[in-house]
Amino acid sequence: MIGDNSKFRALYQREKIKIEERLNNALMYREPVSLYNPAAYILKSGGKRLRPILVLFATKATGGKFSQAYNAAVAVEMLHNFTLVHDDIMDNADKRRGRLTLHKKYDLSTAILAGDSLLSVAYEYLIKDSEDHFKEILDSFTHGLVEVCEGQSMDKEFELLNEVSLEDYLLMIGKKTAAMAEMCCIIGANIAGASKQTIKAMAAYGRNIGIAFQIQDDLLDISGNETQFGKFVGGDLVEGKKTYLFLKAFERASGKDKKKLLRIITEKGIKRFEIPKFKELYSNLGVLEDAKEEILRYSNKALSELKYLNKEKDKDLFYWLTDSLIKRNR
């Protein structure tokens, strides 16, 4: 892969700023403020804005212009935040990105309704950029939403199950995380009027990079720098989550190591002071390196789809994006 490129990084930041501006204005002057102020609060929580960037980059790389896809980019970010609001409610999370979650800052009913409003307004914005390929774009957006809900349901099911396979886990993140990245790439390519073959290739890029992204999240949770990561390292172990790392370790462990990991399931997590011990266990079992190899494997699968792009500079843009995602520290 190519190294970090200041030109592409500047482009990402420039387009991210434009998305932020549109998100800040999207709910302004709407009433009632009791609905739209909470919805605006969640949109101001920041983040990488990866999903709208994927829409814009996919549009540009397949023959379109950024200006054709800003409304669709806003739509997918609203959809993403709709899912975050409901995820936080289901997880009873207190904070996200260092700020109070919506249901903690306001109340449960307000959070549910504000989340629903984000989804409704997302469809309004999506339609603005969907004139030429309305059905395809609308179908992709809706299918992405369905898959995210299915993935979240599977994730919640996993909390109650003692046995979850790696195959089950990959299916779950394929829906919960990767399906939205796939959807973003499909929408961008459709806005640009790309060929069916190109749309299919962009879809495959999105799905594979989405899986790599989630496994990278799992890895960062145990190996990241707390200051850069934005939350305490080892949170997945404390919560007893069945991540790629845990499932790989459980698959590989035996004897006393297996019993230690089994306790995470039976006791629904560990104490924070135990995190270093389990990090050492993961390292001894080789699952940290396994995760890195899997991230690289899915990233390379994603990059293999770029052969269908016509211009080298468009390929380079996605090479840079992929490289920055798998080398991120938060």
Would you write up a description of this structure?
Helix content is 75%, strand content 1%. The protein is mainly alpha-helical and 330 residues long. The chain has one domain: Farnesyl Diphosphate Synthase (Orthogonal Bundle), CATH 1.10.600. The chain has a two-stranded antiparallel sheet with strand order 1-2. The protein starts with 5 loop residues before the first helix and ends with a helix. 43% of the residues are buried. The mean pLDDT is 92.
Write the layout of secondary structure elements.
Layout: H1 6-26, H2 33-43, H3 50-61, H4 70-91, E1 95-96, E2 99-100, H5 102-105, H6 108-128, H7 134-160, H8 166-191, H9 196-223, H10 226-229, H11 235-239, H12 244-252, H13 255-266, H14 275-285, H15 287-304, H16 312-326
Helix pairs in contact: 1-4, 2-6, 3-4, 3-8, 4-6, 4-7, 4-8, 7-8, 8-9, 9-15, 12-13, 12-15, 15-16
State the end-to-end CA separation. Answer: 20 Å
| SS-derived structural category | mainly alpha
- What is the molecular shape? globular
CATH superfamily name? Farnesyl Diphosphate Synthase
User: How many whole angstroms does the radius of gyration measure?
Assistant: 20 Å
Number of domains: 1
CATH class: Mainly Alpha
**CATH architecture group name:** Orthogonal Bundle
N-to-C SSE string, H for helix and E for strand: HHHHEEHHHHHHHHHHHH
What composes the largest sheet?
A: 2 strands, antiparallel
CATH fold topology: Farnesyl Diphosphate Synthase
**How helix-rich are the residues, as a percent range?**
over 70%
Unreliable stretches covering 5 or more consecutive residues: none
What does the average pLDDT come to? 92
Beta-sheet strand percentage?
Answer: under 5%
What's the number of helices?
16
Lateral arrangement of strands in the main beta sheet: 1-2
Can you count the beta strands?
2
